[in-house]
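Bench notes, afternoon.
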Amino acid sequence: MTLTFTWHASLRADGFPADAYEQLRERLPDATPFNSLAWLRAAEAALPASQHLQVLLGHAQGRLVLCLPLVRTLERHGPLDFAVLHHLGYPMSDRIGLLIDLPTSAAGQVLAAIRTRLPHALLQLNEVTGDSPWLQQWARRSSTHEQRTACRAPVHQISETDRQEVSGDPRYKLRRARKRIAACGAQVRRVTPDTANAASWLEAVSAVEAVSWKGDDGVGIFSVPAQRQWMFQAFTALAADGRLRLVVLELDGRCISYRLGLLERGRLYDYNLAFVPQYADLGSGRVLLQEWIDWGLDEGWTWIDASRVSLENSSHQLHERMTGQVEHLRHSFYSWRPSGLCLGMALRLWQRIKPWIKRRQQQPVPAPATTPTATPTAQERPDAVPSHSQR
């Protein structure tokens, strides 16, 4: 098989083969909404000037069989800056599939093409799922390779049993939340935004996030101007494709809580949620999650997916309903350049001394020696509480 590589500086250029890209994405089962051109083009538009995009395309027998949009940036490790490559969309893409429709025998050619065009110390792929033979081949061709679990996202497979009321503790939590919502007069609503109303809905949910703890801490998806631009552009384009979904809780016509999801091949990725703090005691998140499941039953979805959670102490409500988990991995491939060797050596050194440091931190601190003294009487203690007769 003859494999031809070409490079593009943009996904938005007229010469980019958008139709062939979509055909490639549709062929690969691991592709997610975060591989869509709608998402990636918005991510490209939000790139700062210090980051540079290069898109590697591979063709075989006249068919597009590979597309890797890579962003080169300088990252500081210790006192030095190192060239690092990430997949376009980092860090806001919750899960990516590698759009490679080639046998693993071509892995060396692809990695060599990347290293020639984009010299780097580290190629890091975040939020990748599955045990890819491609990545195993790249690991063998790297000076150092690290594979780390980024998270274990709970997922729920929708089935006919979901038409029955959930059992156990979630049943009572759900009932109480519904009673509180009904008592205040709020209503749950399903929304499929389109091109005409996507902007107004995004304004409504971003306003909710702004007054939530996410807005206060500046960690929301709409909090940073560049990310806000990215989210608005991406979600508007995804709405035009019919892939944006919202379940909202409205009170007097105003959105006070929402969950935002992306629908891909019958899998709903629960990407973002927020609520107005004033209504925190309603427990709306659990009710809206149940609405996802009910909506899925009505429209024939197969999965509700948490998209991404924290690795430790995740509080995602889908843990109560999950039927499985999807493990996200972070792969770090260190090159054979001096910078890659140096950075890889520093990683291996840290991995050796980290357990020793952890053991040292966990050792109990000996209590200081004390000299026995006489215990003062109640009358001698300045903080003594007076007796009943003295009050």
